[in-house]
Amino acid sequence: xxxxxxxxxxxxxxxxxxxxxxxxxxxxxxxxxxxxxxxxxxxxxxxxxxxxxxxxxxxxxxxxxxxxxxxxxxxxxxxxxxxxxxxxxxxxxxxxxxxxxxx
Length: 103
What we know:
- By secondary structure, this protein is mainly alpha-helical.
- The protein has helices at residues 3-11, 19-29, 44-66, 84-98.
- It is globular.
């Protein structure tokens, strides 16, 4: 995992994976689809945000190595939410995961 992510997660107080994260992250980081069902507060949101942010960082780093331009497509990920409250939670969690990143 990108060292910036590890530092950001640690700064956000995430030092170990929850069971749902441990079960899903290997599949999600490998780019596979995954379906998880777990109770509220078990880390599902971060389980999908970590691989999303990781892929964004990895693709950005690869693009910079080859062209170093900012002209790439500005839409890099789309997150859909079924409810406003969930969208707010996703935004909060994404901000925690992304904050220290130079991207």
